[in-house]
Each structure stands twice: as C-alpha cells, then as structure tokens.
TrEMBL record, chain A:
Transmembrane segments: 6-23, 32-50
Protein name per UniProt: Uncharacterized protein
Highest taxon listed in the record's lineage: Bacteria
Keyword Transmembrane helix: yes
Swiss-Prot/TrEMBL keywords: Membrane, Transmembrane, Transmembrane helix
TrEMBL record, chain B:
Protein name, entry field: Spore gernimation protein
GO biological process: spore germination
Pfam hit, one: Spore_permease
Upper lineage: Bacteria, Bacillati, Bacillota, Bacilli, Bacillales
PANTHER family on file: SPORE GERMINATION PROTEIN A2
Naturally occurring in which organism (per UniProt): Paenibacillus xerothermodurans
UniProt keyword terms in alphabetical order: Germination, Membrane, Transmembrane, Transmembrane helix, Transport
Record flagged with keyword DNA-binding: no
Membrane topology: Multi-pass membrane protein
Residue stretches spanning the membrane: 37-56, 77-95, 115-134, 143-163, 183-200, 212-232, 267-287, 294-315, 327-347
Length: 72, 357
C-alpha cells in the first residue's frame, strides 16, 4: 500500500508547499476547489493502483459511442 | 497584457494539428485509404477549414473577445455551460496526449523506466511552462516548431534510397468510401486546431491564420504519410503502432549517425510538450472564465496533477487508446463542427452594443 501511496502523497505535499502563498491569498471557495482537485487526484491514484480490476472510463465511452460509429 | 505575433499564432495552430497526429493515427487510416491516404488528409482538412471559417466569422463579431469571453458576454448562464463542455473536452485531449507521450517514450525509448516517473517528469515540465502563460508557449513554439517542420521537409532527401514507387500503386484507382473512412480517423486530430479562437481575441485571430496553420500541418502530415508508404509499404505501415518513428529509424547517415532517430525525436518531444502545455493553459483559462475571480496560474499545478492521474486511469493501455481513435470522432466532431455551426448561427453581439459602436 505504502509503495504506491507514498509518491502521490509526496507530490500533493509538494504542490501544497509550492502554492502555499497563493492558497493564502485565494478566496475560501477557490482554495477548497484546489484541495478537492488534489484529493480527487489522490483518490483516483489509490483506486488505480490499489484495485485489482480497475474500470477505465474510456472503455465505457467506447461502448457508448460504438452505435454511432459509421465505419463498423 | 500578453502579446502573441501572427507567426507564433500560426505555429501554435500547426503544432496542435501536427504533434500528436503524427504518432499513430495514420497507421489506422492506411487499411482504409491505402495509397490515397493523402486524399483523406485533404478531405479532413477541408471539413475542419469550414469549422475554422465559422469560428473566425463568429469571432469577427467580437473583436475584443476570445470565444469564451464572447460566450459569457452574450449568454452568461448557457455560456458557462458551453465553456464547461469545452473545458472537459480539452481536459480529455490533455490526458490523452500525456498518455500518448508517456506510452511512446516507454515503448520506444525508455522501456525499463516506470510510467509514473515519466508522467511526473512530463507534468513537472508542463506545469512550469504553463505558469509562464501563452507568451512563453508562443516563444517555445517559435523555437521548435520551424525546426520540426524543416526537419520533416528534409526527410525525403535522406530517405530517397529507401523509396519504392511500387508501394503506392495503383495510384489512379480511387476508392472513395475508403478515403472517407480514412478521413474519419484524422478529423478529430486536425480539428484540435480550433483551440486558436478559444484563447485569442477576434482582432488577433483571423481565418487566414487558422487556414495557414491547418494547411501547413496537413501538408507535413501528408508528406510523412507518403514517405512512410514509399519506404515501408502499406502492409508494414498498418501493423505498426508508431509508423513514423519506424520511418525515421530507417535513416542511417554514415556509421556515426546510425541512431539519427534520437535527435529527430529530440526535436519532436518539445513540440509535443508545448501542445500539452497549451492544452493545460486552455483548461485553466476556461476555469478562470467560468469561476469569476479565480487565479488561473494557481490552478495549473492542481489541474496538471489531476490530468496526470487521469491519463493513467482513463486508458487501459496504448492499444486501447489506439482503438479509441475509431469512435472518438463521433464525440469530437460535436465540439469541432456542430458547436461552431451553432455559435455561427446564434452568437451575435447585443443590438445595443452594435448601436453604441
């Protein structure tokens, strides 16, 4: 678990340190937008590397668009 | 106020048409278009030129606005919905381009390097560049764009001995449905040039800029595809994931330069990074327009991080990304053709504003 979560936690901490001054000056709503983006990114990362059978959104997109494909 | 010259504007459009298109989509066109792959490119170019004309005409009604600003000025609520759709569209292209670049580097250049390391290095470069704004990207494109185009133009001189004209025969037997199917694959890639009116104002972006960018990119792509056909032949080209890389691997200039593909990839990579950077810039710019008061530069790192993670989550592997090219035009054409038609029909300044001017 720690093997695949450690790099992403380090990246998130790095971004927060890099943006700390900008985050201070931001409106609260905008600050939470940044936090939520980082949290969603981290959650996706843990899902992708932690799950045995990851669902890839483009597989669904492909199935959804298949009936409109003029070539097949 | 950031200033972009007409040459930089054209080169940004060319890079958008060229950089990711030359990776693998041409090998999917070959089984359909065969030796007339050049006609498929031209057909795709004509369709996107129409879309570009529509956008240029729409934007000429708003000389002091780019398309996002024009949408917000005319339709404050629906405009935000349209911008949100374009932000999602360009975010998807951003993730796809990151994944294509990572896969290519992983497969062709650095097979033992972990994908995460490549993704982090790519996104670090892209985020640092995107924080500099569009002017910095204009300069980067001005540096590497002409170099890439010139290098690809000189390829025939170096590859001449490898060409076999039998590979493009029978030249005059035209298969119109096949050419159309070939154009289907390339349409969304060429259509990415519609990014120009999204970030440049009506008085900066003109139709001729779009047309030159599109024409130059398409011409280079045609030259590459025909050289690959002549040197590799159709049966080999359609089985390759990276046909153009295989083409440059054919280059051998004396014993010292038998890996001439490496300097060529070295020139192409910065243009691909520039394209990814501009994509990231467009996504952040769209967010800034949607959310008043949001500082775009501060969003670069979080959005870049999310795009990096999504590029690994969205696509299963390089083959699945390759297969997606068959159905992707259906969705992409909604953004690259249908919405521009809609904008042309309904996006006009308010009558009061016209009377004042």
């Amino acid at each position: 678990m720690i093997k695949y979560t450690a790099p992403i936690i380090l990246i998130i901490i790095g971004i927060l340190l890099f943006e700390r001054r900008n985050l201070k000056d931001m409106k609260t709503a905008h600050r939470w937008l940044v936090y939520s983006m980082l949290a969603v990114g981290g959650a996706i990362w843990i899902y992708v590397y932690g799950s045995d059978r990851t669902v890839h959104p483009t597989r669904w997109l492909q199935m959804l668009l298949e009936p409109f494909d003029p070539i097949r | 106020m950031q200033v972009i010259s007409a040459r930089q504007l054209v080169l940004i459009g060319t890079i958008f048409t060229l950089s990711s298109t030359l990776i693998s989509v041409q090998s999917q066109m070959i089984p359909h278009a065969k030796q007339h792959i050049w006609l498929s490119h031209l057909l795709g170019m004509v369709v996107i030129a129409i879309s570009m004309w529509l956008l240029a005409r729409t934007l000429s009604r708003f000389p002091d606005h780019d398309l996002f600003q024009a949408l917000l000025a005319r339709f404050p609520s629906l405009g935000k919905v349209a911008i949100a759709l374009y932000v999602l569209f360009f975010f998807f292209i951003l993730t796809r381009d990151i994944r294509m670049l990572i896969d290519f580097v992983n497969v062709a250049l650095l097979p033992t390097t972990p994908m995460l390391a490549l993704a982090i290095l790519t996104m670090f470069t892209v985020c640092v560049s995107a924080r500099g704004g569009i002017e910095v990207m204009g300069r980067v494109t001005e540096l590497y764009g002409p170099l890439l185009i010139a290098m690809l133009f000189f390829l025939p001189l170096l590859l001449f001995r490898e060409f076999d004209t039998a590979n493009i025969m029978p030249f005059w037997r035209l298969d119109v449905p096949g050419v159309s199917r070939g154009a289907w694959y390339i349409l969304p890639y060429l259509g990415e040039a519609i990014v120009m009116p999204m970030i440049f104002m009506g008085r900066t972006f003109r139709f001729r800029h779009g047309l030159i960018a599109l024409g130059l990119g398409t011409f280079v792509l045609i030259a590459l595809a025909m050289q690959a056909m002549l040197a590799l032949g159709q049966p080999i080209m359609e089985r390759m994931l990276y046909p153009n890389y295989e083409l440059v691997r054919q280059l051998r200039i004396t014993d010292f330069l038998d890996r001439f593909d490496l300097p060529m990839v070295g020139v192409w990579l910065p243009t691909m990074l520039a394209k990814i950077t501009i994509n990231l810039y467009v996504v952040c710019y769209g967010l800034r327009r949607m959310i008043p008061g949001l500082w775009g530069a501060a969003m670069v790192n979080p959005v870049g991080f999310l795009a990096m993670v999504c590029s690994i989550w969205f696509f299963e592997d390089a083959i699945q990304l390759y297969e997606l090219n068959r159905v992707w035009p259906t969705l992409a054409l909604c953004f690259e053709l249908l919405l521009p038609i809609l904008f042309y029909l309904i996006l006009r300044p308010k009558k009061q504003a016209i009377q004042k001017t």
